[in-house]
Amino acid sequence: MPASRTTSRTPSVAGAVLAAVAVVALIAVGTALVVLTVNTRSQDERSGTDAGFAIDPISDDPTAVATVVMAGIYTWQPSVQNSTWDALHAQRAFLTGPIATAAAAPPTPAPRPIGEWAGWARSDDTVTAAVEASGEAVVDDDTATVPVTISQTVLHRSRESTPFTTYTADVTLHRVGDSWTVANYRILSSTL
Length: 192
Prior knowledge:
Layout: H1 2-47, H2 62-73, H3 84-90, H4 97-104, H5 117-123, E1 126-133, E2 138-140, E3 143-155, E4 161-176, E5 179-190
Antiparallel strand pairs: 1-3, 2-3, 3-4, 4-5
Helix pairs in contact: 3-4
C-alpha cells in the first residue's frame, strides 16, 4: 500500500507544479500584452493630430470657410508649434489680402508668447477651437462678413479639458475665383 500512496502523490505534485507554471505563464503573457497595449496607445496618441483642418477649397459658402479657417487659426499645439503664428501659417492656402501677408513669413520680431504656452508645451496639451457663426453672413458681391464666436479649450494628456477663452469676431472674406478666402478678421470681445 505505501507504493500506491507514493504513485498517487506523484501525479498530484506534478499537477500542482504544472498548474503553477501555467499560472506564471498566463501572468507573464498578460503583463506583456498590457505593456504593449499601453505603449502603443501612448505612441499613437502623441503622433495623431487634428490641428490641420481640411476644407473644400471651392466652397461657395463663406460661413463654412470662415468657421473652419478660424478654427484652424485658433487651434494650437504648443509642443510642436513655436507660436500661434504657426497655426496661422498652416491656414495660408485659405487666406488672402493682409492676413495672407501676415501668414507668409514669420513676424520679426517674434510675437510675445502667450503666458501659458511653455506650460502647455511641457504638458503636451493642445488648445482646440470650436467656431460657430453667431449671426448671418453679409454678402456684397465678392466680399462677405461673417460674425463668429471662437471658443478655445485646453485638452490635457490626462483626457481632461479646461475652458480657456472665448472671442467674438467679424471675419472678412473675399471671393477668389470660385472659392471664398479669409482676408482679415477683427476681434470684438474676449473673455481673457
